[in-house]
Amino acid sequence: MKFLKWHLVPHDELRQLQDMSGENAHTPPRGQARFEDPALLSIAKNFTRTKAELQTEVQHLEVTQSTLESKLSASKGLTSKAEQARKETRLEHMQTDFIAAASHELKTPLAGIEALGDALQMALQDDNPKAAQEFIQHIKVETSRMRALTEDLLDLSRFDENPDSDSVSDLRAAINSSVIMPKRTAKTKDLELEVHFDESLGTALLAKISPTDLSIILDNLLDNALHYTKEGHITLKVGLCTDKEMWILELHDTGEGIAAHDQAHVFERFYRADRSRSRDNGGTGLGLALVKKASERWKGDISLQSELGVGSIFTVKVPVA
Question: How many structural domains comprise the chain?
Answer without folding.
Answer: 3
